[in-house]
Amino acid sequence: MVGRARERRGGRRGGRTGDGLAVAAGVVCVCLAGAGCSAQGASVGGAGGGGDPVAVLHRAADRLVAAGSAKTRTAMEMASGGTRVTIRGEGVYDFEERLGQLKVRLPQDPAGSSEHRPITELLAPGALFMKNRGAGVPDDKWVRVETESLSDGNLVTGGATDPFAAAEVLRGTRTATFVGRTELAGTAVRHYRGTADLARAARDASGGNRKALAAAAEGFATAEVPFDVYLDDEGRIRKVRHRFSFSHGQENGTVDVASTTLLYDFGAAVRVRLPEEQDIYAGRIAEEPGEAGEAGGQGEGAGSGGAADGKN
């Protein structure tokens, strides 16, 4: 697919465009540990939840494919050793072609004196392409990372979770409860809370995410992923928040990451052109603040390691 342009034109799926989304600040972060969630929550789901919560969430990724495309906002927050870093992104994603484009903004340096240029990220099955990624990379070159080579499956590395990968994590839902109906930017949604298993998600995922999610199941401190997700009346994800945990070396201990993905304006036009081979940088690049490690053109750790608060 390198060098090929893929385009989705708005309005291709009638009646599914619009519904702009702007989430108010101060989103409540719900503690999931010990919440007593179980598959028995199906009885709760029947009262306005659209059926068995586990079954509903297993189908959520397929609903996005049926929707075709959407605009997205992301936020990723990483907390370690008393330090908290937040990274935000915005862009579009084509769920049929599994292609997306994001502008990811890194936070300022701790002293607040350095403004990073936004990183342009192209998301494709099995690969992440980044421009303006780090020191030493020419301005006209892209960095390519094979996502299945990453210990986090690119759920964290890019500073934003691939929207379709975020949805496919829900294929591994083991326990879930229907919390209740609410509104998100004027859209009626159903709120679910639960825990997914990355190994199970990898088994049921599409080909483009299977190996990456399997790598995450092995690389994270635990394969269990607590989540909160909000679905509209068509079963499409409007907001999903995952909580990941991974080891960041013996000195740094465990890093807690919260990744939030917002989806809106379904049917939006998407045009993604993947770079040609000659436009891909093959050298090593400098590590950015808050990252998991260094990256080469085909290597690991090219990401921005951040965390999300969902205040988009």
Please bin the fraction of helical residues.
Answer: 10-25%
Tell me the Rg in angstroms.
Answer: 18 Å
Which percent range describes the beta-strand content? Answer: 35-45%
Uncertain segments are 11-47, 292-312
- Class derived from helix and strand content: alpha+beta
The total strand number stands at: 14
Shape from CA axes? globular
Q: H/E series, N to C?
A: EHHHEEEEEEHEEHHEEHEEE
Mean pLDDT: 78
**Main beta sheet strand tally, sense and closure:** 12 strands, mixed
How are the strands of the largest sheet arranged? 8-9-10-11-12-2-3-4-5-6-7-14
Question: What this model shows, in words?
Answer:
The chain is an alpha+beta fold and 312 residues long. Helices cover 16% and strands 36% of the residues. It contains seven helices and 14 strands. The strands form two sheets. A twelve-stranded mixed sheet has the order 8-9-10-11-12-2-3-4-5-6-7-14. Strands 1-13 form a two-stranded antiparallel ribbon. It is globular, with a radius of gyration of 18 Å. Mean pLDDT is 78; it is low at 11-47 and 292-312.
Q: What layout of secondary structure does this protein have?
A:
Elements: E1 5-8, H1 42-45, H2 53-58, H3 60-67, E2 69-80, E3 83-94, E4 99-105, E5 119-124, E6 127-131, E7 142-146, H4 163-169, E8 173-184, E9 187-197, H5 198-204, H6 207-219, E10 224-232, E11 237-247, H7 249-252, E12 254-264, E13 270-273, E14 280-281
Parallel strand pairs: 7-14
Antiparallel strand pairs: 1-13, 2-3, 2-12, 3-4, 4-5, 5-6, 6-7, 8-9, 9-10, 10-11, 11-12
Helix pairs in contact: 5-6
